[in-house]
Amino acid sequence: MAAAAAFSTLSPFKLSSPIETPNFPSLSSSFKLTSSAAAAAAANSPTHPFGPLKFNRIARFATAAPSAASSSATSATTFHGLCYVVGDNIDTDQIIPAEYLTLVPSNPDEYEKLGSYALIGLPSSYTNRFVESGATKTKYSILIGGDNFGCGSSREHAPVALGAAGVAAVVAESYARIFFRNSVATGEVYPLESEGRLCDECSTGDVVTIELGESDCKLINHTTGKEYGLKPIGDAGPVIEAGGIFAYARKAGMIPSRDA
Amino acid sequence: MGSSALPPTSSFLSDKQKDVGFSSFCTQPSFPCSAQVSKKMVSKKVVSVMTPQQSERKPSTTGAVKTGMTMTEKIFARASEKSQLIPGENVWVNVDILMTHDVCGPGSIGIFKKEFGKNAKVWDREKIVIIPDHYIFTADERANRNVDILRDFCNEQDIKYFYDIKDLGNFKANPDYKGVCHVALAQEGHCRPGEVLLGTDSHTCTAGAFGQFATGIGNTDAGFVLGTGKLLLKVPPTLRFVMDGEMPDYLLAKDLILQIIGEISVAGATYKAMEFVGSTVESLTMEERMTLCNMVVEAGGKNGIVPADSTTFKYLEDKTSLPYEPVYSDGQARFLQEYRIDVSKLEPLVAKPHSPDNRALARECKDVKIDRVYIGSCTGGKTEDFMAAAKLFHASGKRVKVPTFLVPATQKVWMDVYSLPVPGAGGKTCSQIFEEAGCDTPASPSCGACLGGPRDTYARMNEAQVCVSTTNRNFPGRMGHKEGQIYLASPYTAAASALTGFVTDPRDFLQ
Questions:
Q1: Is A157 among the domain residues?
Q2: Per the database entry, which stretches of residues form a coiled coil (chain A) (predicted)?
Q3: ipTM metric
Q4: Radius of gyration for the alpha carbons in chain B, expressed in angstroms and rounded
Q5: Residue A191, domain CATH
Q6: Is residue A141 part of a domain?
Q7: Which range of residues forms the domain containing residue A169?
């Protein structure tokens, strides 16, 4: 996909755009943040209607002038793209099989490699590969799952692999605890809970938009024309909004600010 | 969640006779307590008893009333320096021990350095335990490099507890090397009642056997703890499992936890603490309690916990010199649910492919032909696990019909396998019995093939085979091959199955 290609060839640039606030939250993968800003810009241009729009912290929480990203981003976070649908109890071994855990997520090259293996552990009954053979990015930016998504291991490689592959948000009926926590802590994927079984309502390849508003959150399936309510993010909200556990702790004064 | 929320149960809780009286257990008098028992959950000829699901009792939100706390809540309170708290609160807790290993350590270290600076120092060099154990005996360069990364960090930070390995060809040549982290933590005295232990591994919950709060976290959280010694955690409500009755001699703790997981499902304990009490639990050894707590994560549990008692204190006597203060659930503590289990009525179980909650009686799977047996891991590779398997092999006097892989969890376990006499075996050691039974030679201690690992991992399942294993998970691809079929079982059941080449109830050999 053109958008995905554009996304993957973007080179990380320094985090010094005018919209940066002094206490800009630092994330565990800084290059991911920079490319998401550019991706947001790219994704909202007319030539990239289906570009994966990452959870755009810059647009959402910057206090400065209007950003290059979506003009509606001041009061809502949106994700837009193709969805990939999986079932219940997708465990971490399916998300990223153990043999790939020698890759260290905090190492940029290995981070990218992890992305290429995202969901490679799914059984062969899943006829559509999540990441095409030889690719490092997926064309599906939204993952829709059933119950107990991410169960199994505590390996942070799981949300990292999904994020590295290009997933912006996961919408599951329910999550396993450690996976949810890791998603929030890393900021790699935005973990949303659906009101019902979206995995039964959506099909892989459907075009969807997720809107997280002040008062309500919803998923719009453009392919079927249906809309679904999503649960509010709850307690994890402040941590996600701050930009992850480190940013949250800095805001709360638990740890000192890092020198820029 | 009403009483219908429990998943369909197995044969003994079917729609048989309904005439039973047992008290539905209410621990909070001020909440409405229904004396009615959901009829469909209970039968007259009951094999084991589990209380029907009572309606969820939300904790009081008034805050003004001082109420009893569960032991997990008490540990949270002490660790967050609060006198009172309730489930659902998010609090910053002080961490007593942080553990990491070769798979998640490098990533955690990377985050620590990125966030705190490359010259930052860890919060306490004596509270961090770094245990290489996952991908050790492999030629995989990245795996070996990851152990080097740990070593560099430990040198730089002067980490007190680093169980290093350099000579991969001979594990015994490494005096510091231990093996599987959760077993090593216990054996080396890092588990203490009342404390908070976090680890970058889902089975960190194993340490709850010592009456402490222990749970798994990811790299980012661990990086945070490395720098601060604290973490933001949500106080979990507690599910209480009361297990009474004399443990039959063909049953092990693995059967107990498989029973429970099968009952409440893989998400039945999500975000909850699982507290294990009762006369049966009191009769369990520390290693058996570890097995019990080890698999709470397979039910989605946040932590497992067993009250500390004389068994705990005796185990700790020669292992730790640090002071500790056990905590116990108050009489008025509120539990989300309480389950009562009559252990004497249980039978040996397996978890069939491909889920730990896919529970079945071992005897009902006797037509399942198997290709191999694996005895190892933090769940089923401890000294007593091997003793149990050896006892069964010895009782049978026969040889195994399928390749039987033995991977002691730690160096200490390996030594025990080779030196301790198996009770009732005329002085023979486990290793001798295993050899006579035709098992593979006990391998170098590590996590081994429990999670597959690099392709050259000993006993990795590289073809689509059927395996009975004493490990903890059997999702697709867990031990390597995506189409592999894994039956989770106790060491008794695993040994019995090895002898027949089919999934086998151990009573065939033990009675």
A1: yes
A2: none
A3: 0.84
A4: 22
A5: 3.20.19.10
A6: yes
A7: 68-251
pLDDT digits (tens, 9 = 90+) for B137-168: 999 999 999 999 999 999 999 999 999 999 99
Interface of A with B in 27-66 (CB under 8 A): 28, 30
CB B371 within 8 A of CB B464: no
- Does residue A12 belong to any structural domain of this protein? no
Residues B259, B349: contact at Cβ < 8 Å? yes
Structure-token pair, residue A183: 């998603």
pLDDT digits (tens, 9 = 90+) for B278-292: 999 999 999 999 999
Cβ neighbours of A124 in B, within 8 Å = 482
Interface test with B, best of A89, A102, A111 (most B CBs within 10 A): A102
At B277 the three-state DSSP class reads strand
Task: Give the mean model confidence (pLDDT) for residues A29-52.
Answer: 34
> Per DSSP, what are the bridge partners of residue A142?
A83, A169
Low-confidence stretches of chain B (pLDDT beneath 50): 1-49, 51-58, 60, 62-63
A245 contacts in B (CB within 8 Å)?
A: 220-221, 224, 232
Spatial distance between the Cα atoms of A151 and A91, rounded to a whole number of angstroms: 4
Q: Which residues of B touch A105 (CB under 8 A)?
A: 107, 110, 219
Q: How many CB atoms lie within 10 A of CB B83?
A: 8
Chain A residues 143-202 with a CB less than 8 Å from chain B? 147-148, 151-157, 174-178, 181-182, 185-186
How many folded domains does chain A comprise? 1
Q: How far is A204 from chain B (nearest CA, A)?
A: 21
Domain annotation covers residue A92: yes
